[in-house]
């Protein structure tokens, strides 16, 4: 569908498209986001090639882990959102990885010191004591995390002005890692330009990345969506900024 389609047609398209897994291919040609400069998937692949036993926490649909070309002897992933679990199992089957469905905020279902590598891309919440518990002495935790106020411009376009973000600051992650007995050996931050070309892309994104506008539905937020649609038509693509940080810690 073209970006010149009607408001109703665009939001209907964005509301109907599937959001299973954690790939963003549906946005091709409709939205773009800069990639962080450190190359998380490449870093994970390199760490996996040197690992014996590894765990991917909050694997989503397993899309990033599936890029690993040399998996370790033992490779396990966890996922708490039920629709993602079969997607991850299909994506990770060629690697011989096990995917466990878990409950959000529950302890990791593994024995102490089970892994020499734990990775996590965009975790909903990092349970630092649990990460430290399942890591072997000398083991590594590598994670790309969502920073404070990510795509805040989009959140405010739908919800109105918001207070300054209180969570997801890198300094908070460093302090939490230290409290759990881990030593942070790398911390990098990036602000990434994110561009939405039509309101259908916005609707699909808000359905998938649910923390951007908690409780989002087209029906509840139709007036704000209509205003943003008219803004895009009048001014061109809507620009927001995603914030990411890379943190690496050792036990």
Plain-language structure description:
This is SAM-dependent methyltransferase. It comes from Micromonospora craterilacus. GO terms for molecular function: S-adenosylmethionine-dependent methyltransferase activity. Keywords: Methyltransferase, Transferase. It holds the Pfam family Methyltransf_11. The chain is α/β, with parallel strands linked by helices. It has a single domain, classed as Vaccinia Virus protein VP39 (Rossmann fold), CATH 3.40.50. The protein is built from eight helices and eight strands; from the N terminus they run H-E-H-E-E-H-E-E-H-E-H-H-E-H-H-E. It has helices at residues 7-16, 40-50, 84-92, 128-134, 152-159, 170-179, 199-208, 222-235, and strands spanning 31-33, 53-56, 74-79, 98-101, 115-121, 135-146, 183-196, 238-250. The chain has an eight-stranded mixed beta sheet, with helices on both faces. The chain is globular, with a radius of gyration of 19 Å. It starts with 6 loop residues before the first helix and ends with a strand. The relative contact order is 0.19. The model has no long low-confidence stretch (mean pLDDT 96).
């Amino acid at each position: 569908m073209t970006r010149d389609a009607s408001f109703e047609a665009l939001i209907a398209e964005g509301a109907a498209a599937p959001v299973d897994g954690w790939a963003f291919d549906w946005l091709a040609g409709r939205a773009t986001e800069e990639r962080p400069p450190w190359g998380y998937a490449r870093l994970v692949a390199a760490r996996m090639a040197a690992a014996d036993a590894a765990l991917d926490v909050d694997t989503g649909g397993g899309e990033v882990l599936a890029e690993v070309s040399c998996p370790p002897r033992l490779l396990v992933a966890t996922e708490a959102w039920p629709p993602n679990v079969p997607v991850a199992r299909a994506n990770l089957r060629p690697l011989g990885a096990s995917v466990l469905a878990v409950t959000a905020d529950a302890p990791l279902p593994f024995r102490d010191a089970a892994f020499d590598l734990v990775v996590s891309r965009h975790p909903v919440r990092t349970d630092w004591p649990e990460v430290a518990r399942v890591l072997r002495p000398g083991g590594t935790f590598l994670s790309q995390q969502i920073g404070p106020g990510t795509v805040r411009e989009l959140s405010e376009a739908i919800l109105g002005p918001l207070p300054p973000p209180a969570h997801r600051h890198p300094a908070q992650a460093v302090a939490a890692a230290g409290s759990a007995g881990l030593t942070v050996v790398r911390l990098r931050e990036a602000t990434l330009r994110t561009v939405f070309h039509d309101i259908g892309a916005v609707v699909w994104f808000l359905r998938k990345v649910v923390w951007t506008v908690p409780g989002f539905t087209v029906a509840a937020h139709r007036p704000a969506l209509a205003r943003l649609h008219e803004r895009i038509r009048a001014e061109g693509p809507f620009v927001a900024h995603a914030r990411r940080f890379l943190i690496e810690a050792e036990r």
